[in-house]
Design a protein that fits this description.
heterodimer; A: about 425 residues; alpha/beta; Rossmann fold; six-stranded mixed beta sheet; five-stranded mixed beta sheet; 16 strands; about 45% helix; globular; B: alpha/beta; eight-stranded mixed beta sheet; 10 helices
Amino acid sequence: MSTRSLVTGNAAAAWGARLAEVDYIPAFPITPQTEIIETIAHWIDGGEMDARFTMLESEHSMLTAAGAAAATGVRVFTATSSQGLLYAMEMLYTVAGWRVPLVLVNVSRGVAAPITLEADHQDVLAARDSGFLQIHCATCQEVLDFTLLAFRLAEDARVRLPVIVNLDGFHLSFTREPVDIPDIAAVREFLPPFDAGTTRFRASAPVSQAVAVLGGTPYSYFRYETHLAAQNALVVFDEIAGVFAKALGREYAMLETYRSDDAEVVFLMIGSFATKARQAVDRLRETGWSIGLVRPRLLRPFPAAALRRALAGKRAVAVIDQNLSMGMGGVLHSEAAAALYGTSGAPPILASFVGGLGGRDLPLEELFEIAAVAREAARSGVCPPPRLLFTEGELREVRKLQAVAHMERHALGDES
Amino acid sequence: MSDRFQRMKDLPSAHLLGAGTSMCAGCGGLLALKELYDVLGPRTVIVNAAGCMTLLSVYPFTPFRGSWLYTSMASAPAGAQGVRDALDVLLAKKRIPPEEDLAAVVLSGDGAAYGMGLSATSAAIERGLDFLYICYDNEGYANTGQQASGATPFGARTATSRGPRGFPGAKKDLFAIWVAHRPAYVATVIASEPLDLARKIEKAAAIKGPRLILALAPCPTGWEYDPRETAEVGRLAVKTGIWPLKEYADGRIVHTKPPRERAPIEEYLKLQGRFAHLFRPARNESLLAEIQARVDAYWAGVSA
C-alpha cells in the first residue's frame, strides 16, 4: 500500500533514496539541497534507514567518495546544488569515466557571479557533457519516481553510468505537493538489489580501475564506449519505464507531450516551470489557440528522435531556456536545433527565449506573449531574434539599485 | 621493536611489485614503494592522486598484485574514504566475508600531500578514517619537470626558481601538520634505510586509523644527479640530518635513527645539480651557512 502525503521536492528525493535502499550517502550541505541530506541523516539516526552517511569537507571529495564507494560495489546516493556541482565538476567527468552507477540529485540553482541562492538551470547544464545522464523533474512526484528510475537506469548492464536527477531549487525543493510514496515491496519489484557486476574491489579478485591510457587510440575507444552506453539509455529508459508503470502505476515517457499532438505552436522547455506552461496552454486553448507543450524529461541522453516525432509538422516552436550560454544563448534551443536541422517535418520556426534566471519568475503573461510571438512568426515565416526576458519594470528596479549604490558611495566620500 | 625485521637479511628477497614500470631510472620513490609494498602486501586498494606514480598503472599493465584506483590530484583521501566506507557497509551487511576485506592506501606525491590534497587529507584524519597515506616526497612537481612545490627545500633550484638563491621558501613541515591532527601513526622513511622502513610499515599496517608514511624520494631527474647515486643521496640525507627518521605514535615523537655524528650538509648538497649554484661559480657561504643553521636548529630542538 502506498501512502499519499504532502512533501517537499527535497523530501521526495530523500524518499527516493530511502526506498532505493541505498547503502551509502556521502554528503555536503548547500542551499537549497541541504534538507535532503538532513532528512536522510535523521532517518539513519532513527534506525529507519540501514545506510552509512559520511559528511565530507567539499563536494569534490563528496563525489570522489561517491564514485569510489560505487567502484567498491555498493549503491550510492548523493546530492548537491549550484556551486557545489561546479566544485565537484572534475569528479563528475572522472567518475562517469569509471562507469560506476550512482545517483546524484541536483537541486538546481543559479551560479556565481553574482552569487545567488535561487533557481535556474545553469549549474546542471554545466554538467551536460560530463557523462552523467540527466533526468529533469517538474513535480515532487517525479522527483521521487525518477530517483528510483535513475538507479535502475544507472545499474543496467547496457548503461553503467551515473545519473543526475534534477529538480528546481525553491520551486520544487521547498514546495509541498501531494506525493504518492510507494510501498517498499512495490519498489523492490521494480528495483532489484544492487549488483556490482565486475565493478568492485575484493581481496580475492584484484582489479585496477580508472587507470591511465597512453595515446588517442585507447582514449578514444573508452570515450566512444561511454557515449554509446549513454545512447543505450534511450532504449533502456523506455523498457524500465514500462516495468515502473506495471510495478508502481505511473507512466513516464522520456518526453512529456501535453496537448501538442494537434498543436500548431508548441512550448519546449525542461523543469518545473513547464507546469506553468501547461496552465498557459489550457488558458490559450480555451480561447481557441492551437498550442501545446513538449518537455524532455531525459536530457542526457538527448531524446532527439522522440523530439523530432513530437515536433514534426509544427508551425512554430518556442524554446524557453532557464540558462544562458554566454555568447551563444539558450542551451536547449541549440540542442533542439541540432536535433531538428535538416529533418523532414522540422518546424520552420524555432524561436529562443531566455528567462527564469536566478529565481526570476516566468509569469503567465510572459508565456502568453511568447506564444503570440511564436504564432506571429509562424504566420510571417520570419524567426524572431533570441529574446532575453526582462521587463521595463525590472529595468527600473535595477536602475533604482544602481542609484542607491551610487549614493552610498557618495556618502562615504568617494567622489569618483 | 619489530620481531619480523631484526636484521637486513630479514627483509624480503623477492619484490612483490612488478618490474618494468615507466618511472625514471634511479627513482627513489619507486624504490621506497617496492620496499613497502613487500610488507603491505596485495590485500590493498592503492588509491592514487595525480603525480609521477599515476603512470605506474597504464592500460593494460600494472605492477601491483592488489587493486588500484586513480582518483584526482586533490581528493585521493576522499577516495580512500569511499572505498573504506563501502567495504565496511559490505562487511556489516554480510555481503562479503571478512577475508574479502582490503586496506585502503593512498599513494601520492608531495604536490598532492603537501598542497592540493591537504584539505581532503585533514578532513580524512579528522574523521578518523582507517587508512594509510603513503607520500613519495621528491620535493617538487616532478612529474611536470620539477617546479617548486610546498615540499621544496630552501635554496633548491627548481624549474620555477632558477635564480642564484634558488627557492626562497621553506619546506612545509607535513609531519608536524599530521601530528597536530593527533592521528594513529606518522613516520618518515627513506628507501636507503630499508630496515627502518620495513619496521615502520609493519607497525603502521597493524594499527587502525589515519596513518602517514612520508618517504623522502631522491629524484635523479629533478634533483639532477646520476641515477646510480640514489642510495648515496638518501644515505647522506639521513647522515647530514636534513631528513630526520622519526615516528609519532601514542602521542610521542621518537627519532628512530638519529645520526650519531651529523655530517656537514654540503656533503648532501654537492651531489645534486639543484644545489650546484651554492658551489659554482663560487661558494655561496652565507646560503650554505643558512641551510646548515636550519638543520642545526632542528636537531637543537630534539631531545635525545
